[in-house]
């Protein structure tokens, strides 16, 4: 039987998601649905809070409390301002920043008595767990459950627990999960809370408790056969309660942390704190510790984030190399070792820059994210520390703020693999959208062409449609497509919280700001490249490197408004809707 995945699945998005609206009764129902989705008895759970751990202390206090979601503690009016339900057991979260871990703080005053509140927590890294489809858009998903917390701490892989948890499709529906999984989750949560009390009584901090408890229980689950023995046994019970008890009761005993195990955990956590000493190199504070083995980019980034640090900017790596006069690796950096930076590779999606200190670090290498390197974590804030990063469809965008209007934009065109290094840098051209059309594959520069006009504006296949001024017979006025591109709540191509700008918004950032040449467009905060356009009658590319252009969301008669800047012109003109132009998204 199909079932929504047990655990609170929150769609984490950058920026503000509009209020869900609705009555107090609806809000109460939402609260109860979230509690039920966690698989935890409401009699046990008094409060469930979600926040981001911006100071890495394992608690939702101070400034973090202003933006936290207190699922059963918030007033029913407030909860709609912080979380929006979009699907069964699936919710939007406001003000998400991927730099910081996510905390799920629970309360059990019966079992957790070492502190006054009975609170304990689970921690999650900021990477997405795949995507869900919402309004025909793939949105990053983050599942908040005890098993996912163990995955984020690198104790499991998704494949290790697939036989227990099942597999989630793009609509958030899980198939193939273990029978009577609810009883298994109850054992996990009950024992987790008891272990919190054991660890808290011997003086561990909230963060140490989260890490030590999660890792210890994960180790026991692996020994107990979570990959195959446990799910096979539960499935073979066919719902027989005596059989289920014979499996879960011994498991519960193994999951409980003894006093001796608690002391070992305390020793390990305290030694970890000692390992996190820092050193000063080239005026930058670096974490001394590094992992034993090599990591892919996402694992490396996660390794730093989990310790309260970040990957360095490329300029910070170069400054260390220059401070050492380009000689053999400086103290604290290993020889023959590629160190990851936080910056995207140029002209290559799903890749990042980095360098080896005993090579020419002034000329960065770039490796695919599945390649292997080392993280060298930075402790101090950089000038970019407050910039939000948006991971969307495999590309990491940054937010940039307009010096002219104060509005926030993405730093590059949709689909661009890197930030522009020049106006003719083809890696930053991005995708070429036909006006008002979804991200369906047609926008890719190498997409195939078709001369068959689409009958519907919301289902047009994946080919670039040619030989007509408009790519669809539907939506003659352009009103529906204006909504799909221009409305942040229903946007079909931009990240959540973003939309395609209106013609007036484009004008305010360019022509009204004195940006009337190709060089000025590139030098602006938007760094607009001269992408040219894709011709509507044959699908070929024209004037690449010669004309700067970008779509607006504004229709005009049978056409639509676009910005065009060439060697001897600058204008906001009408363009056929079947022409392919880039899109730059603006934050609502």
Average pLDDT, rounded to a whole number, is 77
User: Order of strands side by side in the largest beta sheet?
Assistant: 5-6-2-11
Instruction: Please tell me the total number of domains.
Output: 3
Radius of gyration: 26 Å
Tally of contiguous helical segments: 14
Strand content of the residues, in percent? Answer: 15-25%
Q: What is the SS-derived class?
A: alpha+beta
Helix share, percent? 25-40%
| DSSP, total strands | 32
Report how far the terminal alpha carbons are from each other: 40 Å
What is the overall silhouette? globular
Low-pLDDT segments, ≥5 res: 1-24, 30-46, 71-86, 381-386
Q: Largest sheet, described in full?
A: 4 strands, mixed
Q: What attributes characterize this protein structure?
A:
alpha+beta; 4-stranded antiparallel sheet; single chain; 32 strands; 4-stranded mixed sheet
């Amino acid at each position: 039987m199909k079932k929504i995945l047990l655990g609170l699945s929150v769609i984490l998005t950058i920026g503000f998601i509009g209020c869900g609206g609705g009555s107090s009764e609806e809000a109460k129902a939402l609260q109860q649905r979230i509690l039920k989705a966690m698989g935890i008895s409401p009699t046990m759970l008094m409060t469930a809070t979600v926040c981001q751990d911006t100071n890495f202390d394992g608690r939702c206090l101070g400034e973090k409390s202003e933006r936290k979601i207190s699922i059963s503690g918030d007033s029913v009016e407030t909860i709609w301002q912080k979380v929006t339900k979009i699907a069964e057991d699936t919710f939007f979260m406001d003000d998400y920043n991927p730099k910081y871990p996510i905390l799920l703080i629970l309360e059990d005053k019966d079992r957790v008595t070492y502190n006054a509140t009975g609170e304990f927590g689970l921690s999650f890294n900021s990477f997405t767990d795949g995507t869900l489809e919402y309004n025909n858009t793939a949105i990053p998903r983050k599942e908040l459950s005890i098993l996912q917390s163990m995955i984020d701490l690198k104790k499991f892989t998704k494949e290790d627990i697939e036989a227990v948890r099942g597999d989630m499709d793009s609509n958030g529906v899980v198939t193939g999960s273990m029978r009577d999984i609810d009883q298994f989750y109850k054992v996990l949560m009950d024992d987790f809370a008891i272990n919190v009390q054991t660890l808290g009584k011997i003086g561990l901090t909230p963060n140490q408790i989260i890490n030590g408890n999660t890792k210890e229980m994960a180790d026991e689950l692996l020994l107990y056969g979570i990959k195959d023995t446990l799910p096979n046994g539960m499935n073979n019970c066919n719902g027989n309660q005596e059989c289920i008890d014979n499996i879960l009761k011994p498991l519960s005993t193994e999951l409980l942390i003894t006093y001796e195990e608690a002391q070992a955990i305390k020793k390990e956590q305290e030694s970890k704190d000692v390992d996190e000493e820092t050193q000063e190199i080239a005026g930058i504070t670096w974490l001394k510790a590094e992992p034993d083995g090599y990591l892919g980019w996402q694992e490396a980034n996660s390794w730093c984030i989990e310790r309260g640090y970040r990957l360095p900017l490329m300029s910070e790596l170069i400054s260390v190399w220059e401070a050492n006069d380009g000689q053999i690796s400086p103290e604290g950096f290993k020889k023959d070792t590629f160190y990851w930076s936080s910056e995207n590779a140029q002209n290559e999606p799903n890749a990042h820059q980095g360098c080896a200190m005993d090579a020419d670090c002034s000329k960065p290498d770039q490796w695919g994210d599945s390649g292997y390197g080392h993280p060298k974590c930075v402790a101090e804030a950089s000038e970019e520390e407050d910039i939000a990063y948006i991971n969307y469809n495999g590309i990491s965008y940054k937010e940039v703020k307009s010096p002219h209007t104060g509005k926030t934009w993405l730093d590059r065109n949709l689909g661009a693999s890197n930030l522009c290094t020049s106006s003719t840098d083809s890696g930053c051209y991005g995708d070429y959208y036909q006006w008002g059309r979804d991200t369906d594959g047609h926008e890719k520069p190498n997409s195939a062409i078709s001369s068959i006009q689409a009958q519907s504006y919301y289902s047009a296949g994946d080919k670039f449609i040619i030989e007509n001024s408009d790519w669809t017979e539907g939506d003659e006025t352009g009103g529906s497509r204006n909504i799909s591109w221009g409305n942040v709540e229903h946007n079909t191509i931009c990240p959540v919280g973003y939309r395609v700008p209106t013609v007036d918004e484009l004008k305010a950032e360019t022509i009204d700001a004195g940006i009337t040449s190709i060089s000025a467009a590139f030098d602006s905060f938007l760094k607009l490249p001269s992408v040219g356009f894709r011709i509507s009658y044959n699908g070929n590319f024209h004037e690449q490197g010669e004309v700067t252009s970008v779509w607006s969301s504004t229709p005009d008669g049978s056409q639509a408004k676009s910005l065009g800047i060439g060697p001897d012109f600058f204008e906001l003109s009408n363009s056929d809707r079947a022409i392919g132009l880039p899109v730059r998204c603006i934050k609502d």
